[in-house]
Amino acid sequence: MTEPYDLLIRGGTAVLPWGMEETNIGVRDGRIAALGVPATAAAAQVIDAAGLHVLPGLIDPHVHLRDPGDASVETIPTGTKAALLGGLAAVFDMPNTAPSITDAPRLAWKQDYAARESYCDIGLYVGGTKTNIAELAALELGAGVCAIKIFAGSSTGDLMVEDDEHLELVMRSGRRRIAYHSEDEYRLQARKGMFKRGEPYARHMEWRDEECAFLGTRRLMALAQATGRPAHILHVSTAEELAYLKDFRDIATCEVLLNHLTQIAPEAYETLGGYAVMNPPIRGRRHYEAAWAAIADGTVDTVGSDHAPHSRAKKELPWPDCAAGLTGVQTLVPVMLDHVNAGRLSLPRLVDLMCAGPARVYGALGKGRLAAGYDADFTLVDMQRRRRIEESWIVSPCGWTPFAGMQVTGWPVGVILRGTMAMREDEVLGPPRGRLVRFRG
Ligand code: DOR
Ligand code: ZN
Question: Are residues 343 and 387 in the same domain?
């Protein structure tokens, strides 16, 4: 007779690392105690998952929760509630806040605040600058720190390390994987004068053209190889980079964003205007198809939202004054499930990209697999549920989504966080119980 479980998840189809299986899962003390448990096993709580898929808790490894910064668009409490409602068990939050997270006191503040106020589990990036290089080796080992983030090209905020000399110094300080925003700053600046204020929003992808991104990635790969420092290229947006990165699998991993897998230029700019503007830009069909091919052939390690809230007023300014960045933490899982139903990827590949991949790339401990001993984090999914994404459902204070009106099939109906139901059917349950994710040192 087995000891009673705290929780039994019964009758669902579990997405295990080795395939999909209908199985009952026993949870004890916040961790997965056993798979293949008898349906009649004693448990304090039973969740009937018949007809649902049971996924390991999904992770969005790329969000900007703007905290500290602008509470009128997002905060850690609102953004992590949005994450739960959208079917995520953890988010990794970017450091380009105001002020940015670039030193020990600011990191200490954020560790303490996030551990108290986050509704889902959370990892924290630390920003690399030209003046904190000597501190990075210590900062990257801080509690909850998933990686150092380097903006090699300018975007929202003032973080930037654009020259090879400082990039190399950053790579030689510390040893964990560094996550890069890869666009060549010199080319961005040189091209800016080619365009006039008030031109169509689609100019965004001409200004920040393919070569801006590809040149940035070539420079970073040369430096990563020379220094031996592992690199993670965030939001890869061109066919050229995806082909090129296949030759750097010993040193580099990469991310593709939901927006680049869903939106295509020029239509996106025509229908969404400033609400299509992000860095790196939404590009044409050739790049969209290359992104899906790179999902299919395994080039891509992670998929994120790059959730980047801005006020409607800033998004509606004429180009290029409009703020760059699109919201997405609440819509990432629903839209990806729709892509599964449309046959663009399998559910096991989705779990690989949105759970195992982030855990592997960033070295998250106890996350990434639905297996005995791992954290009892689950995303419960109804693959048949049809629903329209409504702006009224969005809980981020900025209030908008580029996916408003989209009809999707497949919906996250629950999130279990270390054995406790934290979201069920559009309702966040209980107080903030997120914790800092632990990472390999
Ligand atoms: O479009 C973007 N928005 N790209 C980035 O790199 C930053 C982000 C933001 O923070 O707004
Ligand atoms: Zn970002």
Answer: no
Residue 113, domain CATH: 3.20.20.140
Residue 208 in contact with ligand 1 by CB distance below 6 A: no
62 and 50 housed in the same domain: no
pLDDT value of position 2: 58
82 shares its domain with 43? no
Nearest CA to ligand 1 atom 3: 325
Q: How far is 8 from 371, CA to CA, in rounded Å?
A: 14
- Does residue 325's CB lie within 6 angstroms of at least one atom of ligand 1? yes
Q: What predicted TM-score, i.e. pTM, was given to this entire model?
A: 0.98
One domain, residues 403 and 312: no
* Any ligand 1 atom below 6 A from CB of 101: no
Same domain, 269 and 312: yes
Q: Which residues contact 223 (CB under 8 A, 6 or more apart)?
A: 164, 167, 168, 171, 229
Indicate the number of domains in the chain: 2
Query: Distances in Å between the alpha carbon of 335 and those of 146, 166, 341, 342, 411?
Result: 25, 38, 10, 10, 9
pLDDT tens sequence across 346-372:
999 999 999 999 999 999 999 999 999
Range of the domain at 386: 5-54+373-428
Q: Please write the tens of the pLDDT for every residue from 158-176.
A: 899 999 999 999 999 999 9
Q: Is the pLDDT of residue 1 over 80?
A: no
Distance, CA 303 to ligand 1 centroid (Å)? 16
**Amino acid of residue 56:** P
Could you tell me if the CB of 279 is within 6 A of ligand 1? yes
Residue of the nearest CA to atom 8 in ligand 1? 325
Residue 241 and residue 124 share a domain? yes
Asked if residue 147 is part of any domain, the answer here is yes
